[in-house]
Amino acid sequence: MCEGLSSKNEEERSANTQHAELSHEEFVGLLVQDEKMYRDNLRLQRLLKKAKLRQEAALEDIDYRVSRGLSQQVIPE
What we know:
mainly alpha
């Protein structure tokens, strides 16, 4: 079982003086947010690897000048 990110982040956050001023609940909330983001990123990486995409692509890279019937207003940002 993966230990996750919590022990590493807890040490980093404890060393940060700004985080020393947080209440226990706020500190734990930040740790939970970090853990969720870490797990979401792992899941996304796993899914992208499993998809076996031939090339990396992003919505920002779409060339709307080429005639493909794509409208920039239709594709959400």
